[in-house]
Amino acid sequence: MIDFGFDKLALIGAVALIVIGPEKLPKVARTVGTLLGKARRYVADVKAEVNRSIELEELQKMKSQFETAARDVEQTVTNDLNAAQQSFNDQFAELGNGFGGSGYSGSSSADPLPELPPTYQRPNKRWRLKRSAVPRWYKQRAGVRGHVQSGAARVARHRPKKV
């Protein structure tokens, strides 16, 4: 990198004063300063873009590593689960064969697993609605609210009527 000391900057300033002249020197200095500022911002933007691209590559590598690790874990879990299911089925079949020879008259050996209960289904659309033992006419007489009313509707309802 170019190293500018105080003596070099003073020499450049003196040459610029002689070549450009004292009237135009402040305007030229401002122009040079703005151009240097733009150049620094451009370099900083390029550096930031390069850093972002490097971080993006690192994140993509990390993502691929996590995906492969997740796939490996999923594979091992499914393999272990399949092995356990197979061993359970084998042991259940052996138990079924053992009961078959001793006069057990249970389910047939073709269907070794018992039938599962049916899945839960909601009774109807209004299953969350609470049912009350108190009749509606009693609630109305006692002043229990049956539905929600806004404040303005309540005021309008209870406002005395003009004669």
TrEMBL record:
The keyword Cell membrane is annotated on this UniProt entry: yes
Transport in keyword set: yes
Membrane topology: Single-pass membrane protein
InterPro entries named in the record: TatA/B/E, TatB
Major location category of this protein: membrane
Span list, region Disordered: 99-127
Keywords of this entry: Cell inner membrane, Cell membrane, Membrane, Protein transport, Translocation, Transmembrane, Transmembrane helix, Transport
Compartments where found: Cell membrane; Membrane
Domain of life from the UniProt record: Bacteria
Pfam families linked: TatA_B_E
Cited function: Part of the twin-arginine translocation (Tat) system that transports large folded proteins containing a characteristic twin-arginine motif in their signal peptide across membranes. Together with TatC, TatB is part of a receptor directly interacting with Tat signal peptides. TatB may form an oligomeric binding site that transiently accommodates folded Tat precursor proteins before their translocation.
Family according to the record: Belongs to the TatB family.
PANTHER family, per database record: SEC-INDEPENDENT PROTEIN TRANSLOCASE PROTEIN TATA, CHLOROPLASTIC
Quaternary structure, from the entry: The Tat system comprises two distinct complexes: a TatABC complex, containing multiple copies of TatA, TatB and TatC subunits, and a separate TatA complex, containing only TatA subunits. Substrates initially bind to the TatABC complex, which probably triggers association of the separate TatA complex to form the active translocon.
Protein name: Sec-independent protein translocase protein TatB
